[in-house]
Design brief:
- With 672 residues, the protein is of the alpha+beta class.
- Strands 2-4-5-9-8 form a 5-stranded mixed beta sheet. It has a two-stranded antiparallel sheet with strand order 1-3.
- A hairpin with a 5-residue loop joins strand 8 and strand 9.
- The chain is elongated and about 140 Å long.
Length: 672
């Protein structure tokens, strides 16, 4: 009974309808367990092999092809044409994703013939769909559109709204590639209506993705951004990493066109992260290419070159695999033709031998000796040729082994150099940042001696406060040094939890209000009471302490420091925590130098003189923000001075804040 139920479930599953399929480990595990329990002569085994092929088609192409080929062989053995046709069609899909369009088209044609003989119109439509994708690889868009129309016609005959929406989405994509944007817009909006009728979230997400691409080509970046963000939300609901990778990557392209370079880089990074999760070569290529464009636009040419190199390496590896399969097919055909020629040649020689045998027996014997000698030479030549091929293969394997070892040695040497550089940088930081507090303590001892000699009681009363400030400064530096050193070794772990943003800012306010009051600096904070972060509490506190401490150093007497937490306008999954001061600020030319983690930083102090530092606090803030998947940035404040912000993940529901209302209802807290 269980076998019959599973057979019915698999046979009615729309295995070709989804345009973006990522491997679900739970589904794969379930299918493999069922496969192990199925009898070798059960047709259900063919369907299980086909399902495994489809689920792995976008993440592990070699395994997917293996399952499809096993399913075809078993279906032929069991005389099960329905299962054979399904395996041929899914094998064609795998070959299309690998870039082998001609071989994929042959598999789809075999499947189409079997489906047509069985009268399976729905499956015929999926075969047309696969054939269209093969022609798209050759840029034969008109032919691809014709096959999509044939599939759409079959779906309309069957009144199948889901399949109609699928083919309309594909027609929109072809029209988009041909720059027929008006027609593409019509197709995709029809598809969206049909997907909404059948409540197909996956189809709606794919249609919104295509609509965003069409709108971007129509120079409607705002509409394109909205469509892509809606697609992202649906992909998140579905848990579709393949779709998320494509949507984020194209969203990055739209943002880059609008000159929003940093958000574009963040979106491309998310696209790369999801592409690596699903393991799709196609999505990885697109993500590498987009990251290279983002880094180039930001002027980070070294990172852009690295991304371009990874893109080229991945594309070359895929093309090598395709070429290898093509060469194997050509070699097979060549061997078959060579055998036919040898057979034909031997037949002709036998006829000649028979004719000569009738004329002269001695000539027959002589001809037999000649033929035997030729055969011996052929055998010896074949043996020598085989040995030569084996020798070449062994030599190639040795070269690959040596190359792999050289690569491993280079990687190890690079890691050692990075470790040495990191250690030297740590020594420099310790030597530089500890000098100030130690010199402060030395100055306190000299003041004690001076006040005692001059019997200055007023000065002696102020000494405990100076000692306390020096001790707090030294304690903060040691805390930063310890955290930075631990983060560099990789032993610092992040334990995120739900934190109210307002509570974090209030705690930091209470910590620094005394120092702010003593320096006659106004300290303010503001955050929505319902805004909740999902972050490590200690890391979040350390980030705020460092940002506020830096602001206090560079804010003159009578200045203002403002702490604020608001939802990130570029990414709804992030919260922007900022610290803005009214200090002297810095020129734009020095912003990149400040944000660069390898260079010393220079900023004017509140007294007007330069203050030179290693920037350990900002490096630590950057490291902790990246542990949460966020970023650190700096710019000029709206009223002068400097504004430093970090982005941290949001938890729960994020309330939308009206900027004008936020400005008017800003609650100021002044250290008094």
């Amino acid at each position: 009974m269980k076998t019959l139920l599973l057979f019915f479930t698999l046979s009615t599953l729309p295995i070709w309808a989804a345009e973006a399929q990522s491997a679900n480990p739970a589904v794969l595990d379930s299918l493999q367990r069922q496969l192990a329990l199925t009898e070798p002569t059960d047709t259900l085994r063919v369907l299980l092999l086909d399902e495994l092929c489809w689920n792995l088609s976008h993440s592990d192409l070699p395994r997917a092809r293996t399952y499809a080929e096993q399913g075809i062989a078993l279906a032929r053995k069991l005389n099960y044409p329905r299962g054979e046709a399904r395996c041929h069609n899914d094998l064609g899909t795998c070959l299309t994703l690998a870039g082998s369009a001609d071989e994929a088209l042959r598999q789809h044609l075999i499947a189409l013939r079997i489906f047509r003989s069985l009268g399976m119109k729905k499956s015929m439509g999926y075969a047309y769909n696969g054939m269209a994708k093969c022609h798209i690889l050759h840029n034969h868009f008109a032919t691809a559109a014709r096959f999509y129309h044939m599939g759409l016609f079959l779906a309309e005959q069957r009144h199948d709204s889901a399949d109609q929406a699928l083919f309309l989405t594909n027609l929109a994509d072809v029209a988009w590639q041909q720059d027929s944007l008006k027609q593409a817009n019509q197709y995709i909006r029809r598809a969206l209506l049909l997907f909404a009728v059948v409540n197909d979230l996956s189809g709606q997400a794919n249609s919104l993705f295509t609509l965003g691409k069409v709108q971007a080509r129509q120079h409607q970046p705002d509409s394109a951004r909205m469509s892509l963000l809606e697609a992202v939300m649906l992909y998140r609901v579905l848990g579709d990493g393949y779709g998320l990778s494509g949507a984020y990557t194209y969203l990055s392209k739209v943002m880059q066109a609008k000159k929003e370079l940093q958000p574009a880089l963040d979106a491309a990074t998310l696209g790369m992260r999801y592409a690596q999760q699903v393991g799709s070569p196609e999505r990885l290529q697109n993500a590498y290419q987009q990251l290279a464009d983002n880094y180039a636009a930001l002027g980070q040419h070294q990172q852009a070159y690295a991304m371009q190199q990874r893109f080229q390496h991945l594309r070359d590896s895929l093309m090598t695999e395709v070429n290898t399969r093509a060469m194997a097919a050509l070699q097979s055909r060549y061997n078959a033709r060579e055998q036919e020629d040898n057979i034909r040649l031997l037949t002709q020689r036998q006829k000649v031998t028979q004719l000569r045998a009738e004329r002269d027996e001695d000539r027959i014997q002589l001809l037999g000796v000649i033929v035997g000698g030729l055969l011996l030479l052929v055998a010896v030549g074949s043996l020598l040729y085989g040995q030569l091929l084996r020798s070449r293969q062994e030599l190639a394997a040795q070269h690959q082994l040596v190359a792999a070892k050289n690569t491993a040695l280079e990687d190890a040497a690079q890691e050692l150099r990075q470790l040495a550089d990191s250690k030297a940088r740590l020594y420099a930081i310790i030597a530089h940042d500890l000098r100030g507090p130690v010199m402060a303590f030395t100055g306190v001892t000299e003041l004690i001696s001076f006040y005692q000699r001059t019997n200055d009681q007023e000065g002696l009363r102020h000494l405990p406060e100076l000692v306390r400030e020096s001790a707090q400064s030294l304690n903060g530096l040691l805390d930063n040094l310890l955290n930075w050193a631990v983060s560099q070794t990789g032993e610092l772990s992040c334990h995120p939890e739900h934190l109210y943003a307002r509570d974090l800012l209030s705690e930091c306010y209470e910590l620094f209000q005394t120092s702010a009051h003593s320096n006659q600096i106004q300290l303010q904070y503001d955050a929505d009471p319902h805004l909740v972060l999902y972050a490590d509490q200690n890391m979040a506190r350390t980030i705020l302490r460092n940002l506020v401490s830096n602001a206090l150093k560079f804010t003159p007497t009578g200045g203002t420091i403002r702490l604020q937490a608001t939802p990130d306008t570029t990414d709804p999954t992030q919260v922007c925590v900022s610290v803005t001061d009214t200090g002297p600020g810095m020129p734009i030319s020095q912003l990149k130098q400040v944000l660069h983690p390898q260079q010393p930083q220079l900023r004017a102090s509140n007294s007007g003189g330069p203050v030179q530092g290693t920037g350990l606090g900002l490096q630590l803030c950057r490291t902790f923000a990246e542990c949460h998947g966020g970023t650190l940035g700096m710019s000029a404040g709206p009223e002068g001075g400097a504004m430093v912000w970090v982005t941290l993940p949001v938890a729960g529901k994020v309330l939308k804040v009206d900027p004008t209302q936020s400005q008017s209802s800003f609650q100021a807290h002044t250290a008094a």
